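4.2 Preliminary Data

To establish feasibility before requesting continued support, the project team ran the inverse folding procedure on a target of 253 residues. The structure was first converted into the token representation described in Section 3, and no sequence information of any kind was made available to the design step. The complete token record follows.
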């Protein structure tokens, strides 16, 4: 059990990559805090983990990760439930529909940066003191191939994920002496609720056009991303920090 006796928070885990990460961590012995603003999805995921791994293996806590009060409550309630936090996966994210950059309204731009970037700042403000007191821990930020090899039509989303990659590296450098490892996942587009927005419409033609740009010839799956997150969270990666791991079938080559 690679995460036995560990406690992990996974934001945005009511569906998609986050759901797969939470369930994979639970399979490897972790206690899970499932977080989302989609109550139906979050409750379902926590219930499924408890059914598979035993009652008490997971709890659902609603929080808007872009709000300081919510993030503070998420960390506090997680500590109340499990007495410690070992792993934080800042996975929650949103995008805009693939479109020309000048067609994205300001309020949507602000929300993208609040959810994708500010949430990591808020997470650090509340969590890092806890990890320092415990003697270390792991932070994983979900970035994207969009932050490494940007494409037209997703300009502002690209920028938010580029910021995630840069702040991940900065956090890793600053927090290393505290034995806090910080890494990022960079998935290519996959089977999540955001896929239609990335592709500008989820059609067979759009899927085939996108698959043609991936050397391994397919989209990512939640399992691909969950397995990568598991490695970065585990003690097997104890000397890995500041990495932006491409889970992309070669898309960024």
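Position-by-position output of the design step:
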């Amino acid at each position: 059990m690679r995460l036995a006796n560990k406690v992990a928070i996974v934001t945005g885990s009511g569906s998609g990559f986050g759901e797969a990460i939470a369930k994979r961590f639970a399979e490897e012995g972790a206690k899970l805090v499932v977080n989302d603003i989609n109550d139906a999805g979050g409750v379902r995921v926590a219930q499924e983990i408890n059914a598979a791994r035993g009652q008490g293996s997971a709890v659902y806590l609603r929080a808007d990760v872009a709000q300081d009060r919510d993030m503070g409550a998420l960390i506090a309630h997680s500590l109340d439930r499990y007495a410690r936090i070992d792993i934080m996966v800042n996975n929650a994210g949103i995008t805009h529909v693939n479109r020309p950059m000048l067609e994205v309204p300001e309020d949507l731009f602000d929300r993208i940066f609040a959810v994708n970037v500010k949430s990591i700042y808020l997470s650090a403000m509340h969590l890092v003191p806890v990890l320092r007191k415990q003697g270390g821990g792991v932070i994983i930020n979900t970035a994207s191939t969009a932050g490494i090899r940007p494409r037209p039509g997703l300009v502002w989303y690209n920028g938010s994920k580029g910021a995630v990659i840069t702040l991940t590296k900065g956090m890793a450098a600053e927090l290393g002496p505290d034995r806090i490892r910080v890494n990022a996942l960079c998935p290519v587009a996959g089977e999540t609720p955001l896929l239609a927005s990335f592709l500008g419409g989820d059609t067979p033609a759009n899927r085939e056009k996108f698959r043609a740009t991936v050397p391994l010839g397919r989209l990512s799956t939640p399992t691909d991303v969950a397995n990568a997150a598991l490695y970065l969270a585990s003690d097997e990666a104890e000397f890995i920090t500041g990495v932006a791991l491409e889970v992309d079938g070669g898309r960024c080559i």
